[in-house]
């Protein structure tokens, strides 16, 4: 018997307020005073009341997805719509708490995507709103790792070695470590950016660090 319904054993009347939707096969037994039994049955479909707008449901026990990881400078995306369901199957729109720099939320699909620019650990809350204006919330944790250091190309025939100590993006300053080519003039230049920056220096020890802005 569907939850919320019950049978009156004296009258055979089934009544109540169904609590779950679904398709049910129900068998009824009639017993006379001699103990003889006969069986009959019917099928019952319990549907949602189309006149009522039921609120969305947050799924997965309050976690949209398992804890996520991303890397600075590497494209990342996650589908947050999997953390919600609308009982009537109607479309929902999505909102979120402030996202890590470089990531954005598509309000129509619930997808969070982009290229993160700052490392850190973040708790992200997403809200799903149905066409009746009711919003429910769900969330997940995201850890953004710093990218691996970049190694500059060696100059042929020299011991020069350049390492970018981080994974910088536009507008970020990082240290650049230079090794080798002692007492030789060196020019560092950022490439592949909107603006090019150059630094001239001379190594006066075996290793030296110099800040460089990536435009």
TrEMBL record:
Gene3D superfamilies: Immunoglobulins. InterPro entries: Cadherin-like_sf, Ig-like_fold. Pfam families: He_PIG. One of its GO terms (cellular component) is membrane. GO terms for molecular function: calcium ion binding. This is Dystroglycan-type cadherin-like domain-containing protein. It comes from Spirosoma telluris. The lineage of its organism: Bacteria, Pseudomonadati, Bacteroidota, Cytophagia, Cytophagales.
């Amino acid at each position: 018997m569907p939850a919320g319904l019950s049978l009156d054993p004296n009258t055979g009347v089934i009544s109540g307020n169904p609590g779950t939707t679904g398709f049910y096969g129900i068998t009824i037994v009639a017993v006379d005073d001699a103990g003889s039994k006969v069986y009959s049955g019917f099928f019952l479909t319990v549907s949602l009341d189309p006149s009522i707008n039921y609120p969305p449901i947050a799924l997965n026990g309050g976690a949209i997805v398992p804890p996520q990881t991303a890397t600075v400078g590497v494209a990342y995306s996650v589908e947050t719509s999997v953390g919600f369901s609308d009982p009537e199957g109607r479309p929902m729109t999505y909102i979120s708490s402030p996202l890590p720099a470089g990531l954005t939320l598509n309000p129509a699909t619930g997808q969070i995507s982009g290229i993160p620019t700052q490392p850190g650990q973040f708790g992200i809350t997403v809200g799903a709103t149905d066409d009746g204006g009711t919003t429910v919330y769900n969330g997940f944790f995201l850890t953004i790792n710093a990218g691996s250091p970049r190694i500059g190309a060696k100059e042929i025939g020299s011991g020069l070695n350049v390492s970018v100590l981080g994974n910088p993006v536009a507008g970020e300053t990082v240290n650049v470590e230079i090794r080798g080519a002692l007492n030789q003039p060196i020019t560092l230049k950022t490439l592949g950016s909107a603006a090019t920056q150059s630094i001239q220096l001379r190594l006066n020890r075996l290793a030296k660090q110099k800040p460089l802005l990536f435009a």
